[in-house]
Structure formats: C-alpha cells, structure tokens
Amino acid sequence: MKAQKQKKGDFEYPPYERKRVIIRTAIYFLISISVFLLGYFSTGKTNNLLTIVAVLGMLPSSKSLVSVVMYFKIPKFSEKVYQEISVQQGTVPALYSMYLTSYQLNFPINCFVVRGSNLIGYTEFANCDVSACEQHIQGILKQNRLQNITVKIFTEKARFIDRLVQLQALEPGKKEMEILELLCDISL
C-alpha cells in the first residue's frame, strides 16, 4: 500500500517528511559514492575527473543531511490532542504539527488557527517559549505587510479550545490563507 502524500499543516506531515528526507539523503550519498568508486575502479587512481564530480555531489548530500538532523529535532505531536482540537475546528482554517524555526529558538506548535485578524496557536510542550514565539510571528507578519493581526499562543488546551469556539462566530478575513501560507513558509 502506497503512503498518502502529506502536506505542511497536516498532522502526519513531520514523520512523513522525515522518512522522505532520509531516503533522499541516502540516495544522494549513494550516487556520490558510486561516482567516486566508478572513477577509482575505471582508472585505478583517485586523481580523476569523477572524483571531483563525486566531491561536488557531496554538497547537496550534506545539505540534505542538515534537513535530516532538523527533522529529528521535531518532537512527536500527540494524536490525542490533534483529535480533540480537530473535532472543535469547524470551518476555521487550521494547521497542525508545525515546527517554527528562528535564529535563536525553535517552536513546536500543535495547532494554529486563524479567523479574521486573530491568529491563535496551541503547544503541548512546556519548553516552548510562547512569548518569544508570539514575538517571532508578529515580526514575520510585519515583514510581510500583514498588520493588525493579534497573535496568541496557548499552553492550556481548554483555553485554546474555548477561544477556537469563539473564533467560529467571527466572519472570515481576507488574509487568512496568506497568513497560513506564511506560517508554512517559516516552519519545517
């Protein structure tokens, strides 16, 4: 059975993408090693043009290896939390299992929802600095000319769900999809 392709914002995206990146990285390294061995066995020396090609092939391989390391840093998001939130989601657009990266910190966020000019998120991880996350998102929104957006990250699931229910009563905004796309752009 073929695994269904996941996209950013789906609950199963991080484990799916981790497997995909591992396979891609292994293939990149195998190609570079194969090119090196082909050059070595065909000339009997390591001083040949294929060695240069193999060494240059290590650049994308190494870059892909960095992605593997980053995907292993993503914590496992709780499926129970996902089930509880998705039942309450209604018609409010949401993203799940997001791992935002910044220069100083990384932020694991279980769920983001946006309605009108309100962006809220929930994290189950106690080590997530929600204040820094809110400031980081506000900065990114301002850089992208998305003004007057209220950002709130919750650490208490009940308060997040209460606010989610309140947001369902609000009218949809014009920039909701743009905000969600921007969050996808700044996350792994």
What does this entry look like structurally?
The protein has 188 residues and is α+β, with helices and mostly antiparallel strands. The protein is 54% helix and 15% strand. The chain has 2 domains: 13-73; 79-185, no CATH class. The protein is built from 6 helices and 4 strands. The chain has a 4-stranded mixed sheet with strand order 1-2-3-4, with helices on both faces. Helix 1 (13-43) runs antiparallel to helix 2. The protein is elongated. The two termini are 26 Å apart.
Strand order of the largest sheet: 1-2-3-4
Structural class: alpha+beta
Helix amount, in percent? 40-55%
Q: Helical segment tally?
A: 6
For the residues shown, what is the average pLDDT? 88
Sequence stretches where pLDDT stays below 50 over 5 or more residues: none
| Domain unit count | 2
What is the number of beta strands?
4
Rg from alpha-carbon coordinates: 21 Å
Q: Which outline best applies?
A: elongated
The share of residues in extended strands comes to: 5-15%
Q: How far from one another are the termini?
A: 26 Å
The main pleated sheet reads as: 4 strands, mixed
Question: What letter string, H or E per element, gives the SSE order?
Answer: HHHEEEHEHH
Tags for this model:
188 residues; 4-stranded mixed beta sheet; 4 strands; 15% strand; elongated
Explain briefly what this protein structure is.
This protein is α+β, with helices and mostly antiparallel strands and 188 residues long.
Describe the protein's topology:
Layout: H1 13-43, H2 49-73, H3 79-88, E1 94-101, E2 106-115, E3 118-122, H4 130-143, E4 150-154, H5 157-168, H6 176-185
Parallel strand pairs: 3-4
Antiparallel strand pairs: 1-2, 2-3
Helix pairs in contact: 1-2
